[in-house]
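Appendix B, example 12.
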Amino acid sequence: MSSSIEKQAEPNEDVALQSATELDNNILKNLPEDTEILSITPSGASAWVQTVRIETRQKDGAIKLYFRKSQTGETGRKMMQGTWESESIFYSYSPEHVPKPYGWGNYESDPDTWFYLCAFHDMEDDVPDVRNFVSIVSGIHKESLGKSSQYGFQVPTFLANLPNDNTWQDSWEVWFTQAMKQMFAIEELSHGKDDELEVLKDALYEKIIPRLLRPLETGGRSIKPCLVHSDLWPGNSMPDADTGEIMIFDSCAFWGHNEADLGSWRAPRYKMGRPFFKEYQKVMGMSEPQEDWDDRNTLYAMRYDLLVSALFPNTYGIKFRNM
């Protein structure tokens, strides 16, 4: 398991854990009594957090694996809390397809280091089967639909190491505008201000978003918030190597329009696209007005291109701004 968007990780302290068999006491408190730590080894290559696989022997002799990620400072605290809140609610809706969360908190030995602990699953790095994947996602959308009366989430959640503005709103148009303003502000920190982009942003906030999202909630039409993962790409939705069951993880939850979860599927780099759209529409239909569906999806996809641009303050990132 790895973080939401990957690149070559910088060397970190977890390399030293390859032969270690000790865990901080606050992590141990989340494990069953008399758990024996057999090994702690690096897992995945994340540029945003430190990640390890923990192999244990339980009291009855069974071998059990855990996954721990960690980060330091106030950002680390918010990231781990957001992960715990987000993954816990997703697990409550789909326990067969989300790694079981066990706990989060800070280290007893280093209170400025924060961790999240869950079950470890060995994954196959492959695009998930379209029908099985859509069945899981649409199932969560259906089950959670209307369980919140507002759009947003109770804590900030993070796409990689970038915080979402999850402030509660009564209107989907207002919440999505808020989210896009946050993403543009973070992206500007990576690449600086651009005069042409400033003009386009004004048009987006004042014309495009109202034109595409306001009709969802006016003219006798309405939508209800559902639980949105918001980072559904093949790197966060993989088959379990042992069971073949698709596991979804690294959620960045908020309560929103169900179609917003399909924004990342549009990117050619993820090799999802049309087959996944058609299967989802077959199960869930399209929000009215249906003729706006593709333009809404393009709008939702824009947020992910901004995300990649913000994450990489170099020529790789800037090409996503230029898209």
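The first helix runs from residue 25 to 28. Confidence is low (pLDDT under 50) at residues 1-19.
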